[in-house]
Amino acid sequence: EFILSTDFSKYEPGRYDVDGNEIYAVISEYDTKPIAEAKWEAHRKYIDIHLMVQGEENFGYANLDTLKVIQPYDEGKECLLLEGDGDFFRLAKESFIIAFPQDAHIPGVIYKEPARVKKVVLKVKVGLLQFVV
Known about the structure:
There is one protein chain. This protein is mainly beta. It has no helices and eleven strands. The strands form three sheets. Strands 1-2-11-4-9 form a five-stranded antiparallel sheet, with no helix packed on it. A three-stranded antiparallel sheet has the order 3-7-6, with no helix packed on it. The two termini are about 15 Å apart.
């Protein structure tokens, strides 16, 4: 409901609580970067829903078990860093990806040429996300 009822183009970068630490949104604006400057990441406590508001990027995905840990899980940052190979696809305006704890990902990579993007990452505490078909 929050995603469907919010015009994120009018929001400034920052954190916006939806339900305290259970569900919150992080809005960011940044320039896409070369793959050599990017790192695989994964999370344990939150599911990420990456929603592109403006621009486009190359978004990497790999199963956590296929990558090598280069920085152990940091509970404060809620992040694990990895290296290895995965698949990439274009994340364009109004498209989204859901990354579960087993889904390592690399956001923010240049898609054909460097671009300025605005993106929302909705952080949903594991166990709260339900799908209705």
